[in-house]
């Protein structure tokens, strides 16, 4: 407990570069259980999560312009709610059939948590695909 990726507030995002181009099929999010939490609560767990891919490749040398273009060309592959009352490891299917191709990056956007005003914690994210 406490050894997580924590970010300030209830919203945050991370872009994950995959080791190869992947046809994305699902995403798994993990948090600790209430029993494992020293406080007995897991209000820092993510709640509403969105998964995006970018239709444009960006080069490292043109990051600022690439970030602007990527925001304009992102495609949503799924929105889901991590439920703190269920198993701490939850897998959600993605809608890649809308874009039947492989991607090298995936963006995880946490839109809210379960009530912690100071920070949100994620213990593990797994990206599934072929």
From TrEMBL:
Gene3D superfamilies: Galactose-binding domain-like (2.60.120.260). Residues 1-130 form the SUN domain. The keyword Zinc does not apply. GO terms for molecular function: protein-membrane adaptor activity. Its main location: nucleus. It is found in: Nucleus inner membrane. Keywords: Membrane, Transmembrane, Transmembrane helix. It holds the Pfam family Sad1_UNC. InterPro entries: Galactose-bd-like_sf, SUN1-5, SUN_dom. GO terms for cellular component: meiotic nuclear membrane microtubule tethering complex; nuclear inner membrane. SUPFAM superfamilies: Galactose-binding domain-like (SSF49785). This is SPAG4 protein. It comes from Sitta europaea. The gene is Spag4.
């Amino acid at each position: 407990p406490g050894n997580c990726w924590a970010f300030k507030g209830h919203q945050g995002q991370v872009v994950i570069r995959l080791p190869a181009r992947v046809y994305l099929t699902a995403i798994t999010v993990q948090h600790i259980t209430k029993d494992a939490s020293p406080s007995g609560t897991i209000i820092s767990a993510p709640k509403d999560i969105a998964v995006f891919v970018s239709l444009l490749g960006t080069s490292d040398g043109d990051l600022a312009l690439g970030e602007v273009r990527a925001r304009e060309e992102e495609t949503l592959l799924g929105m889901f709610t991590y439920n703190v009352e269920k198993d701490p490891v939850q897998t959600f299917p993605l809608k890649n059939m809308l874009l039947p191709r492989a991607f090298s990056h995936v963006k995880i956007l946490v839109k809210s948590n379960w009530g912690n005003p100071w920070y949100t914690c994620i213990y593990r994210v797994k990206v599934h695909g072929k």
